[in-house]
Design a protein that fits this description.
Elements (H helix, E strand, L loop, with lengths): L2 H28 L7 H19 L2 H25 L4 H19 L25 H5 L4 H19 L1 H11 L1 H6 L4 H27 L11 H11 L4 H23 L6 H5 L1 H14 L2 H7 L13
Helix pairs in contact: 1-6, 1-9, 1-10, 1-11, 2-3, 2-4, 2-9, 2-10, 3-4, 3-9, 6-7, 10-11, 10-13, 11-13
Protein name: ABC transporter permease
Membrane topology: Multi-pass membrane protein
Keywords: Cell membrane, Membrane, Transmembrane, Transmembrane helix
Length: 306
């Protein structure tokens, strides 16, 4: 593959981690719940998935373990903020700190471990197309699953009755409760589903993207995924576009280094985070636009007895 084909392939690979996590957080926020614990969720899922593959040699069991870890932690978070009405922001930060510390402790003995040799995936015929074939059609199946899931989520949120109910819970939980919908249970299911996607993102990061375990390896991707939901104004298609855009910015640093561009590596490393800040600053210039698109009850507790 030439340089541009490599960059495109790496963009899809790296952007998938962000896309999965951001789509999970989008589901949370459509139900009115803000989860700032994505970083910790992804770290715990990464070590759970990596350790499972080390002991079983099966990638898919690793993905299942990552999703299970993400769902479990998200369920605990959900019970705290939905039933006990703890502050969503403080609880999310606590989850992030817990996940960072616990994953570092649990992963000590896996730092030097190596995964079995990774299989190569390719779609027959399509993968042989010059330039785009190697970039687009030799990706891990999870990449295609992520794109398909984003398309399904668009249909679910805007074309299905269940999606309408989920959005109504995020817009006005009092009205949804008055109509007889179990608001708390719907929010909990949304939180657990979001946790599973964040868990899959963490497992994919450790098993496929890096194929190793290092303490703190998520490296801020959970926070970027959180920012992506605002960048995308809570639209799945824009989340997907934003994820691959930020994935491309991340991969650009390696492309520039490989091309011999004399730029300090520290500057290149901070590119995705600078891009995140710039995008959020530009979006924040129009708060009315954010209010129009943001779920009305986002971050607000719901008291069914009031």
């Amino acid at each position: 593959m030439d340089a541009w084909s490599l960059l495109l392939a790496a963009t899809l690979n790296g952007g998938t981690v962000l896309a999965l996590a951001a789509l999970g957080l989008l589901i949370n926020e459509k139900a009115g719940i803000v989860n700032l614990g994505a970083e910790g969720l992804m770290l715990c899922a990464a070590i759970a998935g990596f350790a499972t593959v080390i002991h079983t040699g099966n990638d898919w069991l690793g993905f299942a373990a990552g999703m299970g870890a993400g769902a479990l932690l998200a369920a605990v978070f959900g019970v705290l903020v939905i039933w006990l009405n703890t502050n969503q922001y403080a609880t999310g930060l606590a989850l992030s700190l817990f996940g960072t510390g616990f994953s570092a402790f649990a992963g000590i003995k896996y730092v030097q471990e190596k995964l079995p040799e990774r299989p190569n995936f390719a779609i027959p015929l399509l993968s042989d197309i010059p330039l785009v074939g190697p970039a687009l059609f030799r990706q891990h199946p999870i990449v295609y699953v992520t794109i398909a899931f984003a398309a399904w989520l668009i249909w679910f949120l805007y074309r299905s009755r269940s999606g309408l109910v989920l959005r109504s819970v995020g817009e006005s939980p009092e009205s949804a409760h008055a109509l007889g919908y179990p608001v708390r249970r719907i929010r909990l299911m949304a939180v657990v589903a979001g946790g599973m996607l964040c868990g899959l993102a963490g497992a994919y990061l450790a098993i496929i993207y890096t194929s190793l375990w290092v303490e703190g390896m998520v490296a801020g991707r959970g926070w970027i995924a959180l920012a992506l939901t605002t960048f995308a104004t809570w639209r799945p298609a824009r989340v997907l576009f934003g994820a691959y855009l930020f994935g491309g910015v991340t991969m650009l640093q390696f492309q520039l280094q490989g091309a011999g561009v004399e730029v300090p590596s520290q500057f290149l490393t901070m590119l995705p985070y600078v891009a995140t800040i710039v995008v959020l600053a530009l979006i924040s210039r129009n708060p009315a636009w954010i209010r129009v698109n943001m779920p009305a009850s986002l971050g607000k507790p719901f008291y069914p007895g009031s």
